[in-house]
Structures
1.
Amino acid sequence: MKGERQQQDQIQKNEERPLMNSADEQVRDTDLTQKGLAVPSAAAEVGSVRREAALPLNRTYFKRTGLQPSFLVLRDGRNEQPAPRPEGGAMPAGPCLIRSEEWLLAPELASLYDSWLASEDGPPAERALQRIYYRLRAEAAELLESPDGDWAVVALLSPPELARRRSRLAALQDAQLEALFAAVAERQRQGGECRLDLLAPSPASAAEFAAQREFIEEVADQTLGHAFAAACRIGALIAPDAERAAAGEIARIADFLVLDGAAEEAAPGENAAQDFAAAASQVLAAVRRVRPAAVVFAAGAAAAPALADLYEIGLSGIFCSAGQRTEALLRAACLTWIARQDNMDTAAGGEL
């Protein structure tokens, strides 16, 4: 009963202020659009906006103005050659998606992780996990000190080998969250500013996501206090073939969703982009029936090739690799311009 009541409270809170924070929360005020266009240019990243301290603090991933849709083209993975931070405190147009499983591939961390997996429960496993924590904290600090860390959304670790070892998975995610929040606290002590949002990986149901969200918020509250826990946006990373009804119920209590096609990239078909867009359309329809204003992104190698279809069905944006991003930015800008022209022509025709 307690879990159901907490889930109902979370649904009510999200419906009252989706993706928004109250005025007393100490967070950066960000508006991602300028006159309805949220697609940054390939050269100058147009769409970044400056903080307006005099305005009420609120945070959104995107905003729609009239009939003109906003569409974000964001980074999937860190930039190997990151651009310098813009002067004047400009915010990125949107978050950079960080898949933290890549951290486990670093040689030193991979060795510690393998040792921890092989160890029995007890002091040896605890010591190995403590060493993993310090390495994760170093990775988190490096991220937050880089331009990519100005606004990052980090997917929690969920290695497939821990799918049936739930206690080990919880311990690893706990260590990761503590490492991330400790890095945020250190960044704040140094006078730096950053925005960290989180993704719960592959929840199968709304109840499972609610439990993941409660766990994240509890660790955040214990580490950085209630203000940060309330400010941190928590989304769900789900597969395009996720059960439709479950996706809709998850959207009720998630701040945003990311449809991730990365799991299907091992054996891509000739029609991968079309298949991805078709699956995304079905998920989005189920989500919007439950929550019309839900924020839904796409990610994975098929997202950029399917951009036109994803734009057409009304997705909020995509995450794509650095190699795909320039072309995706140009295509999205063209689609947005065409949509705006069509809206202007329609409006002009109605006045005649």
2.
Amino acid sequence: MDTKNLDTPNNFFESKVLGHPAGLFVLFFTEMWERFSYYGMRALLVMFFTASVLGDHPGWGWPREHAMSLFGSYTALVYLSTMLGGYFADKLIGFRWAVIVGALLMTLGHGCMAVETPFFIYLGLGLLVFGTGFFKPNMTSIVSLMYKDHPEKKDGAYTIFYMGVNAGAFFGILLCGYLGEKVGWSIGFGLAGVFMLFGLLQFYFTQNIFGNIGLKPLKTRDIVIDKDDVDNRVPFTLWQVAVVLLCSGLGLIWVINDPISKISHGKSNLLNFNIFGMEGTNFTILLALGLFLFLLFYRLTKYSKVTKEKLYAVTFFAFLTFSFFAVFEQAPGTLTLFARDYTDRILVGNSSLIFLIANSLIAVVPLGIITWVLLLLFKQTFKKYGLANIILSISFVIIWIITIWMLVRDFYGAGFLNLSDSTLASLKIEKVKESLTQIPASWFSVLNSLFIITLAPLFSKWWESRFNPSANVKFGIGMILLGLGMAFLVFGARDIIPGAKTASVSIFWLIMVYLFHTMAELCISPVGLSYVSKLVPARMIAFMFGVWYLAIAIANKVAGILGENADSIAAEKGISYFFLIITGVAVAIGVLSILLTPVIKKLMHEVR
């Protein structure tokens, strides 16, 4: 197909779906399957590591400390790898090939994890880290370039694109989590890989729809610099580059060494030394952090007063974002294990029926809506991209089959559906002896995506109204909501005695946690990067985005460290006390953010 001039706005908007280019929905479904695979695997990982080596679905029997350490390092490296993937795309291979390489690496990674042996699990996690790094930053870059001549439509485009993100996360957790817990870990891990493969093939065979976008790296002349930006230039000197490399090396060694040293019980430890009375691990990370902060604030002092103060505001927001994710990312670890070990997930009678009906609706209705969007895309693209559309349709047929099978299995298991022995055999459903519903522990994570889809329009209206709060007030409200979410578990877990390994807390408390945490996310996550782009000069965007993602990466590792300590705190003072600490810190940071409104407003220089 001739791609000449296909990246002009007229050609992009000739073939439209819901008022947007058909290419946007190609990205929508590609991103949806990538998020399906990422969140589907993530929902199972900690439970797989900590599951008993005995029983119907044996895991590795790890203590929580080991599982959370590895999980924290994995999620931190995922965010750090986006810098590597962005560099390769910008300088060497272009956005499009970066997406294809990333999707291929992730497909192989999920396939490795389905084998369940230590070698393949670790290899799979490594492939997923690099794959996500190549994939994640470059999808949004393609969206941005598609709309460079239609900025008025960009907000709507990103809204649709992020609906794909949440749809993928929703179905990934729902289905991979269900199959992993109920059928087998390898089935859950493998399903994630299958749909990543569908996303890869769909994107590869439809890529010409993007014209010339992303085929080659951006040239220097293509990078827009604000002509009014006459501020001081502060190029990196040789010693500053050396400090950056040193910080990066020390940080990576610490992140990778932490789980290795714990899992091996100290037999493999690159940081097995003491300096000034500190263990090598603590000294290394504190040195890296100290050098980084010194370099950051040293460079900030070299800019003009206005630019410097705006960058101080961005740094403050990065600190708040770090604080948010350190708590929010307890969901796949601490909160999922709380659901498994401390929550009464057994339902019978009317409670069982109500849950099954609700679960059916939240599974079928969104899937039906997305299938309708798929049909609209077919109408516009099937003649030119028939093979890609067939691949995409096969993926949806499989999703429908798995969803219906899951619902039939649950209604039968709860005693609301009678099936003959021959039907059970043909459907691969085991005969049950007792009628009941057991909610999968991973199911509660589905609520985040569900609440985002439900509440996002309301928060969007709030931000567009005259009651739209300032940046730091939004962050403050978000942190307070985050703390209040944890407060529900403080109350709900109050009767769990110290050292208890199991309990039967009502599911109500976890549902409220996810509701409040989703509202907190809507106050913080979408607006953070927006303020970076508003406050930072165009020539510095890449650097400050790097600082931003570094903050999130560190937060993910800190979230793992917090999760590691949950058991020791629970053994001594009770699990409720662990959540109380998090509640107090989150609310205090939120209040501080609101109190600093006059200071931050002055630093932002009327940017809203």
